[in-house]
Write a structure and sequence with these properties.
Cro/C1-type_HTH; about 50% helix; single chain; Beta-Lactamase; Helix-turn-helix protein; Lambda_DNA-bd_dom_sf; MLTR_LBD; 13 helices
């Protein structure tokens, strides 16, 4: 069988199985007992993705039709695909996921529970692109409220070079920014061919004169920081021991900042203050 035919057939089967896994209520559609098959109907997926029913039907049937990245991403969103499924979908279509699709990785609740258990240790989880995909309350309180950022702005390198609030947390920003960039460059070896990286670098070179100046230097460094000092506008200087853990299955990194005794008391006070504001 022709390789393209095989890919199209597998693509159709993959879409069908993903469609059948979704309960209509999950996407805000009414569910009733008249449904003959499990999951969503083709016309419902088409509606959610903003494409015609005929076109989507042809895609599931494995017909030789052209599919743009934007449409694939819309279908991925409609089917609530995770990052691994998105990569597989784009692979079957012989194209590369758009950068927004790469931010769709849902966080395993186990990891989120681990972060939440670290009450007074500002902790985050990063993917291979240095996107912050999970964090705890302490991290939002000490560094920046990640929940208020656009999903594409939750990137540590982007924050370090373009976000003044995040930059203000570092007592010696130029030195820390250069160190972070050198570590980031080493981590880029596994994504050098990703279109995302090319677009990311090009955008930052336009947005930050410092990034544009330092990136061409090709400085590299290992992740070595053990002690970290953060400057908070209300609590003043905060002192932490910095630890990094690598998750074995998907190479996510969990960054834990363990506070000194005095810093822990300051964080307790800040968190209490935030709780009172939330109640008010």
């Amino acid at each position: 069988m022709d390789n393209n035919v095989t890919l199209r057939k597998e693509l159709g089967n993959f879409l069908k199985t993903r469609r059948e896994k979704i309960c209509p209520a999950q996407v805000g559609l009414p569910s009733n007992s008249r449904r003959r098959t499990p999951g969503l109907r083709r016309e419902e997926v088409a509606m959610l993705a903003g494409v015609s029913v005929t076109w989507y039907t042809w895609l599931e049937q494995g017909r030789p039709i052209k599919v743009s990245d934007e449409v694939l991403q819309s279908i991925a969103n409609a089917l609530m695909l995770n990052a691994h499924e998105i990569s597989y979908l784009f692979g079957l279509s012989q194209t590369t996921p758009s950068k927004n699709a790469l931010f769709k990785e849902p966080t395993n609740t186990m990891f989120q529970n681990v972060l939440d258990s670290l009450l007074y240790s500002p902790s985050t989880m990063l993917d291979k692109y240095w996107n912050v995909i999970a964090w705890n309350k302490a991290a939002s309180t000490i560094f920046i409220d990640f929940s208020k950022l656009d999903i594409t702005d939750r990137n540590i390198i982007k924050l370090m070079f373009t976000n003044k609030e995040y930059q203000s947390r570092f007592t010696n920003w130029p030195e820390k920014a250069k160190e972070m960039l050198a570590v980031f460059r080493v981590s880029c070896t596994e994504i050098l061919n990703d279109q995302w990286l090319k677009e990311f670098i090009a955008a930052l070179q336009k947005e930050s004169k410092y990034f544009n100046k330092w990136w061409p230097l090709h400085d590299v460094a290992a992740e070595h920081e053990i002690k970290k000092i953060i400057k908070h506008p209300l609590a003043g200087k905060l002192f932490f021991e910095h630890t990094v853990f690598l998750t074995p299955e998907n190479n996510f990194k969990i960054y834990i900042n363990t506070p000194t005794t005095s810093t822990k008391e300051k964080i307790k006070a800040l968190l209490t203050m935030h709780v009172k504001k939330d109640i008010e």
